[in-house]
Amino acid sequence: VLVSEEVVDQLDSFLTREVGGFRVKGKLQPIVIHELLCHVEETDEKTKKVCELFAEALHDFRSRSWDQAIEKFKKCIERFENDGPSLFYIELCEQYKENPPEEPWTGVVHMEKK
């Protein structure tokens, strides 16, 4: 389940992970999206570690360190099978390696479709 940062700010006792900043078609301002994972009391160590690793990978993505980001996103998939956000970013990093995003780079993903 994906939710905006505004929704996360109103939640108590839920573990979320930031998925990134996105600018959707037709909107000027980007929004920060989080994945709603579970109640905090249900969180296991594996999930915490994947969240930490994903945050590191997202930092590498924002730093344009495509290969480092890909490796960390792949590790997320090893620990969290079929991790949709990691699969999304691996594909995006591969695209950006071939066709780098325009400057100035803010790390915001531009979505062409609603």
Task: Describe this structure as you would to a colleague.
- This protein has about 110 residues and is an alpha+beta fold.
- The protein has helices spanning about 5-10, 45-60, 65-80, 85-100, and strands at about 1-5, 15-25, 30-40, 110.
- Strand 2 (about 15-25) and strand 3 form a beta hairpin.
- The chain is globular.
- The mean pLDDT is about 95.
Question: Can I get a quick summary?
Answer:
This protein is an alpha+beta fold and about 110 residues long. It has helices at about 5-10, 45-60, 65-80, 85-100, and strands spanning about 1-5, 15-25, 30-40, 110.
Strand content: 15-25%
How are the strands of the biggest sheet laid out side by side? Answer: 1-3-2-4
Order of helices and strands: EHEEHHHE
Low-confidence segments = none
Q: What's the story with the biggest beta sheet?
A: 4 strands, mixed
Distance between the termini: 17 Å
Mean pLDDT: 93
Q: What general outline do the C-alpha atoms trace?
A: globular
Helix content: 40-55%
Given helix and strand content, the structural type is: alpha+beta
Helical element count? 4
C-alpha Rg (nearest Å):
14 Å
- The total count of strands amounts to 4
Structural topology:
Layout (H helix, E strand, L loop, with lengths): L1 E3 H4 L5 E10 L7 E9 L5 H18 L3 H14 L4 H15 L10 E2 L4
Helix pairs in contact: 2-3, 3-4
